[in-house]
Amino acid sequence: MRVLVVGAGVVGLTTAVCLAENGYDVHVLARDLPLETTSSVAAALWYPYLADPPDRVFGWAALSLQIFTQLARESPEAGVRLVMGTELLKQRCADPYWATAVRGFMRVDSPPAPYLDGWAFEAPVIEMPVYLVWLRSRLESAGGTVTRMALPTLPDAAELVINCAGLGARRLARDVSVVPVRGQVLYLAQLGLARWSLDAEGPTYVVPREHDIVAGGTDVEGDWNTRPERSVAADILRRATTLVPELEGARVLGHRVGLRPVRPSVRLERADSSHPTPIIHCYGHGGAGVTLSWGCAAEVLSLVESC
Ligand SMILES: Cc1cc2nc3c(=O)[nH]c(=O)nc-3n(C[C@H](O)[C@H](O)[C@H](O)COP(=O)(O)OP(=O)(O)OC[C@H]3O[C@@H](n4cnc5c(N)ncnc54)[C@H](O)[C@@H]3O)c2cc1C
Q1: Do β-strands 179-189 and 220-221 pair in parallel, antiparallel, or remain unpaired?
Q2: DSSP 176
Q3: Dist. CA 269 → ligand 1 center (Å)
Q4: CB under 8 Å to 199, separation ≥6 — which residues?
Q5: Using DSSP, how many helices (H) and how many strands (E) does the chain show?
């Protein structure tokens, strides 16, 4: 069966890999190639953030966690590592709903001031520029292709179309409930930092990678500006250094912005439409597209098999 996947971000590529490795003739069409997408800006820590509904997100995130863990252990070239880290909170909270999915989840006994609560756990850190290139070559090894093409509407030259256009679904699926939530990050020279840190207020996060450190961030709904702003970068650096004092004086290597495709809930369903070709929508993954990618791709595969 010939399948067209629209979108070459983490959601489109992972879905395409799953389908191609299960015998489908898969072709990805995308306006932006993998390293130009929002996905390439992701920090990217496994963490269910700005994505709903919790019951489906839990299942998708848990399956993705298993696969990322396996990749970290068996495929070092994929750019995935298992890293311990801590989330700190300014108020006391119950365990998050996804706590049972992660390895080594434990409460922090005495959080540093001004924090009152926190937890530590091991999570995959996915180095997106490495990982997206690896995903694309895994797709090509399974016979799939990736072609640059800006589409005015969803295509119909296939037996099935999978819409993984992220924010582009506003136009392609005429869905104005998917909105941009702007995230700005900066890259710092690696100085031996081995743990990630997160303060959901801000949000502020520091994620160590092999050769650099990603420091974030912002989450401004409705802001389409993709240019890094100097004053925002200064504020991120101040917050990140408060959270992780070792960053004091770290060399800034660069800045990027991504627009998270946020929707009241992730849309993963077969479309009930008059379009000549059957369509499965898979978009609106908010701040967790990487975290949910393998779980969503597996669900798309089972929808395709039942078509
Ligand atoms: C600063 C920041 C930090 C983040 N950190 C994390 C993190 O730590 N963990 C995590 O899990 N997630 C994180 N995210 C969220 C994550 O990046 C997104 O959820 C994810 O990238 C969404 O993936 P996607 O493939 O759906 O969309 P995208 O990566 O945006 O890809 C969409 C694709 O569709 C294509 N497309 C759109 N319209 C058209 C059209 N008309 N014609 C053809 N092609 C089209 C685009 O060109 C692109 O190829 C972060 C995001 C940001 C901005």
Answers
A1: antiparallel
A2: T
A3: 18
A4: 87, 88, 89, 90, 115, 205, 239, 243
A5: 6, 14
To test ligand 1's pocket by mutation, which of 4, 17, 27, 32 has the most ligand atoms within 8 angstroms of CB?
A: 32
Q: Whose CA is closest to 57, among 47, 72, 67? A: 47
In this prediction, residue 275 has a pLDDT band, given cuts at 50, 70 and 90, of: confident
Question: How many angstroms separate the alpha carbon of residue 306 from the centre of ligand 1?
Answer: 27
- What is the residue whose two structure tokens read 């799939």? 144
**pLDDT tens string 67-94:** 999 999 999 999 999 999 999 999 999 9
What are the start-end ranges of the E strands in the chain?
2-6, 25-30, 80-89, 103-107, 117-126, 145-148, 160-163, 179-189, 196-199, 204-208, 212-216, 220-221, 252-270, 279-285
**DSSP bridge pairs for 257:** 184
User: Both tokens of residue 250?
Assistant: 């770290």
Per-residue tokens: 119: 């937890």
Which of 17, 31, 151, 174 has most ligand 1 atoms within 8 Å of CB, for mutation? Answer: 31
